[in-house]
Amino acid sequence: MRPGAALAGMARVAAVLLAPLLLAACFFSPGKFAADLDVARDGRFDFAYKGEIVIVGYRDPMRDFPAQGDKELLNEIGECFEESGKPKPTCSAEEQARLKAQAESRQANERSEDTREFEALRQTLGFDPSDEKAVAAFAARLKGQNGWKDVSYKGNGVFAVDYAISGTLDRDFVWPVFPGAAGVVPFVVAQRQADGRIRVRAPGFGGFGGMNSSGPMTSAMIGMASKAEEGGPAPDGLFTIVTGAEVLANNNEDGWAPDAKGRRIVWKVGPSSAAVPEALLEVRR
After folding, report:
1. If 0-12 CB within 10 Å is exposed, 13-18 middle and 19+ buried, where does residue 35 land?
2. pLDDT tens profile 42-72
3. Predicted structure pTM score
4. d(CA 68, CA 83)
């Protein structure tokens, strides 16, 4: 077997093996947003998120397939058929029938795969995103939780969110938490360490852009992530930490800048963001 073919095969196997893990861990992503974490010197904090939360890879196959399917079918068999669907005289009837049967079989397989993926999405989310009543009930459950000031559904897997909460970092803070959803990757985590320091990480605001695409497994993950991004807006926003605490470390390229409250760190978040934003703060109570 050629090395290239072997690698391609490994990538396909990796994609199959990783699919359940990705489905269970990456269903929500930021769209356009602004997220702000204000940490006082004594550990008190304010966190706010305003913008979009996206169901990654959302696509209702039963709604989208018919409109796209006919056009894709004609593209695939274009050597024997006009755009109008009329057979070209350059191809025999046998050739036309063979090409059409192959394309229809391929489309049926793709549609079946889309349906299976959508069912996995529905089960992991805990609601059917193609059902308006189910989506409205999910939004209502979110609004019933502390900090969710407003949640509205814009359609196509996109929620508009206004969230704000205050507290003290004497314990871990994790956001967001979705009722009924399994395995959600948090956007922001603030963990209080044994020595009293606060480590802030934002797993939902970066990571894929820094992958080395040379390995077959990584290539499979990047391919699946790219496919998922087709289902909604890509991440686009700013994550800002303002703090009166000592900034012991951070991975922002520009470091921190002076602020009236102490220090400010701003990460620009996009679909190719390489690093997961991270900072280590020393608070004093």
Report:
1. buried
2. 999 999 999 999 987 666 544 544 444 444 5
3. 0.69
4. 14
